[in-house]
Amino acid sequence: MNTRLLEVEDLHVEFRTRQGRVRAVRGLSYQVDRGESLGLVGESGSGKSVSALAILGLLPRTASITAGRIRFQGRDLVGLPERQLRAIRGRSLALIFQDPLSSLNPVHTIGRQITEQLRAHRIATGRAARDRAVELLERVGIPDAARRIGQYPHQLSGGMRQRAMVAMALSCGPSLLIADEPTTALDVTIQAQVLELLAELRATTEMSMLLITHDLGVVAGSTDRLAVMYAGRIIEDGATAEVLARPEHPYTAGLVESVPRLDAPRDAPLRPIPGAPPDLGSELPGCPFRPRCPHPAPQAQTQEPALSELRPGHRVACWSPRLTPLQDTTSGGNP
Amino acid sequence: MWNYALRRLLTGTIVLWMVSVIVYLGLSLAPGDELTVRLSPEVVAQLTPDQIAEKREALGLDRPLPLRYATWLKNTLTGDLGTSSSDGLPVAEDILAHLGPTAMLVGAALVVGTVLALTAGVVAAVRSGTAVDYLLGSVPILLVGIPGFVFSLAAIYLFSVQFGLFPTNGMYTLGDESFGDLLHHMALPGSVLAIGVAAPLIRYTRASMLDVLSSEYIVTARAKGLRPSRVVWSHAFRNALLPIITVIGVTLPEMVAGAVIVEQVFGWPGMGQLAVRAAGNRDVALMMGIVLVIALSVVVANLLADLAYVRADPRVRLV
Amino acid sequence: MSDLDPPPLAVPADPAGSASSTAANAGRYPALRRFADHRMALLGVGILAVVVLLALLAPLVATHAPNEVDLTAVNHKPGGGHLLGADNVGRDIWARLVFGARTSLIVGFGAVAISLLIGITVGMLAGFYGRWIGALLMRITDAVMSVPPLVMVIVFVAIAGPSLVSVTVVIALTTWPAAARLVRGQVLALREREFITAAEVIGVPRRGIVLRHLLPNLLGPLSVVGTFGVANAILVEAGLSFLGLGVRPPTSSWGQMVNAAQSPVVLMNRPWIWVPASVAIVLTVLAVNFVGDGLRDAMDPKGSR
Fold first, then answer.
1. Is B278 near chain C, with CB under 8 Å?
2. How far is CA B91 from CA B36, B112, B300, C112, in A?
3. Angstrom distances, CA of residue A249 to CA of A235, A254, A296, C20
4. A287 — phi, psi (to 5°)?
5. What is the per-residue pLDDT across A10-32, written as a single tens digit (0 to 9) for each?
6. Which of A222, A325, C46, C278 has the smallest C-beta neighbourhood within 10 Å, fewest atoms?
7. Do the chains contact at A120 and B222, CB–CB below 8 Å?
8. C 137-156 residues with CB below 8 A of B?
């Protein structure tokens, strides 16, 4: 029996806009195994959220999957009839979003938003559903859950709202939780709490997680593996600790280096990556990162590099990877 | 919420009071002034100037304006709206007799028209971009440009005369006071009025729905695996409804105005017809009474709409 | 029935125009470009131009005088010297039609002009002098909005006596609240903007700034409100005349002409008496509505269409 839970294979997603076609996702491939947590990192506009929506078949009408496969629990979700997709959504595959205030319906109580999901998937109804909702809220650490059930989203704080969303996502016992920027809209302290919650939930269930974020700090502590996205595809992936300690792709290295460090001298300059993300509405010949690359190889002009295994478990799509030598610190293993 | 209700009631009362001031000012501009209102023009025409002066003094009509207004207000509040000059009956009586039919017609048209518009608007928004949407979107545009009387006449021409489906006018057929007969007579004017209510509302509903459908919580709802019908009605529509309630409240007076025309064309014995008759006879007392009663109902309806809004949107309940 | 499309109550607050970079926003007058792209609006302008032209040239275009009673041509079908036939006292329908256009247009534009004047004044006062005066003015605005306009018009025209002027003024008196609310809202919004405070700090008088920024921001929404107001005024005048409570002969009015159709004989057998005027009203109102739609879409490029 395959341990592969989710496998995105060579996915291409296109948007039709007034200015023409925008290819947001260009040959994206990543996978999540049972019980593991994958971090998908990239700048805004790199297409990472689009891939999450594509998995669930929730792309807006202006977008479409033009090629590729999305295998979940062995089935290809691309082209799957709507009814079957609906049976998966919210049940074996759950999704939580960035801004819990706008992601929750303002005119329904929290309780109702949970119980309707339970009812829709025939898990529980009536009294049993209500009890289960209270249980779930308690599970995610919301105090006084029985009272909160009857409250509306605007009556909860930001952190509690996100917890409520997590509760909703968990309600039907999903195998995979996709969290799209779950902490971006929250204060740093609340961020930590929510990440802790997610870690705890994963530890006690067999749930896998796909954590989409632009914040390296978030992936560092919460994920087993890391995949870096640029211009619609993966340009580096591997064990999180390994990739962060020895980033091979200049973009990944740039990301790591741009994070301000507490132990750097006070007046040390910030080190952003020069240039700007590419325009996904145009064709990008060769390696899309070349314009910003500090050491581009000559082939990068015309040929797009493919993902190849540089070290066991660590792949890079680059013509001139940094090839950082192994340092004297303990090498990367799963934390 | 009761706090809010009380505050709105207070505002409504103030508004009504202002309407009464405007009305009274209009009254005092009328030829013959209040005496004609109280005693009817014919009676006054037969009095000698001395008798007129006497009467005026007796009724306190030689006092300054604010005092006269106060008296008039007192009378109005106790139900004495003066006498109609066109039929000699107390205005209050005239109005009461005609209130029922209008309430029935406008009430039915409001309900039917609103349900129609909401449904059409939702369907148009959900199927946005398709032929259905185009149809549902463009028909109201055309309808809104057709004046009520033209629409009514055309309806009569088609359905009463050509197809003989409905009676051309009146509320009941002589001798038959059954409910079925009433419905039969109400069908055409009611439909015309309902369409008048629905036409502008469809576009508004569609716009509101489209706005809501692009919200994040709709994506969440779909991501939960809910049925599309549930997403559309329980989630999207429920939110889109909020601004629509406000719009209905604001456009209420306009809808009532449409009833005046419809009643006239279809010979429906309601307030509209009464108003036209009053205007035709320059029956000042009657006209003023009608305006007050209509203003009262609009204020009450607006209050109800506001309360409905507060109930529907949990975010404002704490106000 | 008039167009109740949501008037721009939420006014776009950006004085310099949106930062959108689509082609439609290029050029010196982006709004004008967008308007020109709107096919229906152009059609509306075209129809309106024809109507205005006919109205202006009425004496030249009409073959008869509009009030010329000709008892030999009573209820004459179209033809034989009468382009659209004649009515029950032999007056030429075509003549009445083009002269009736004058009535509709005068009332339509006149009422809106007066209504905007009143509305802008009230709105400004209410916005600048908040608190008591503002609250009072807004209550009055609410009061006026509470009564169905047609009813108010009927009543006041009956009091004041039916004439072109009284109809125009009375319609204006019942429709100014829309403009007032708009202006007041905009004044209030602008007063709170930070750049006002900033300018005040360096000594620029508050009123001056607000006024300077007010006008450009108001131009758009007011023109939309005004346009729909014209359509509304035309419909109200037509309705009033239809009920026999509006302008009286010798002035012709389209509504008046349709009045005859209340008689079943005319309705069924003499369509030329009432159909042309009906069509004229519908076409004119639709044309104005299309122009209003075009203006509204031109002002707000992020429309939902």
1. yes
2. 13, 31, 21, 34
3. 7, 9, 11, 35
4. -85, 125
5. 999 998 888 888 888 888 898 89
6. A325
7. no
8. 139-140, 142-152, 154-156
